[in-house]
Amino acid sequence: MINQIVWDVSPTIVKIGTFEIRWYGLLFAMGFLIGFQIIARVFKFENRDEKDLDKLLLTMILSIVLGARIGHYVFYEGGHFMDNPLAFLWDMLVPPYSGLASHGAAFGVLIGLIIFKKRNPSYDYLWLTDRMVIVSALGGAFIRFGNFMNSEIVGKATDKPWGVLFKRNFEFEQVPRHPAQLYESISCLVLFVILFFLYERWKEKTPRGLLTGIFFVWIFGLRFCYEFLKENQEKFEDTMALNMGQILSIPVVLFGLFVMVKALREKPIG
């Protein structure tokens, strides 16, 4: 008999009429709230204007949500655009959201920080990205755990003793599966600890771009590997040697390596 963990937890915490609080939304919000406190601590330590924090938080919220949403449609559902362009755009931008792409969120953050820097020229761009990736790693841990609570983005069937039977996932066969969401959540949490430790060690002396490079290599390098253990998100991926998540991860990892190597060349650790 295959060992298994039965997961039959409701994604909804409380529901009153049409109003409901879901685990995913709560965890998503917690990522922002805790991240805000960490960045506030960074700003205070490095004598940055704390008045800019609210503007930065708003920039990040909009960048992540819009980037993730647009990324999902462009990368996974772009073929539906010509069917009904207006309905497509409305569904893409207006809540409730049925899909968020982490690659889109990453691009959104990079673009959002460019906009923030242009409006606040006293900030160095890589200074911003190096500090934002710390809290982004923590946010990723919360979001992937939210996916687990939703019984979505499940892994492939497995006979491992930690295989999880997702009773509330009706998209795939009801068999024990890799808890791929937890793999990614734990990886994000470990990355957060590493990035936070490196920042605490060097603070303002941290080589410009080093934490940014580590973030992209770690997150999307592991994402490439974990995809082998996950079910494809869309049917069109079933005919591909590498799925969309893996294809998108390759250039992001290369970008991260470039930024990391450049940072170490400009300011070797010693």
UniProtKB/TrEMBL annotation:
Its EC number is 2.5.1.145. A 1,2-diacyl-sn-glycero-3-phospho-(1'-sn-glycerol) binds at R144. The chain crosses the membrane at residues 23-43, 55-76, 96-116, 128-146, 180-198, 210-229, 241-261. It is an enzyme of class 2 (transferase). Pathway: Protein modification; lipoprotein biosynthesis (diacylglyceryl transfer). The keyword Signal does not apply. It is a multi-pass membrane protein. InterPro entries: Lgt. Its main location: membrane. GO terms for cellular component: plasma membrane. It comes from the Bacteria. GO terms for biological process: lipoprotein biosynthetic process. Keywords: Cell membrane, Membrane, Transferase, Transmembrane, Transmembrane helix. GO terms for molecular function: phosphatidylglycerol-prolipoprotein diacylglyceryl transferase activity. It is found in: Cell membrane. Catalyzes the transfer of the diacylglyceryl group from phosphatidylglycerol to the sulfhydryl group of the N-terminal cysteine of a prolipoprotein, the first step in the formation of mature lipoproteins. Belongs to the Lgt family. This is Phosphatidylglycerol--prolipoprotein diacylglyceryl transferase.
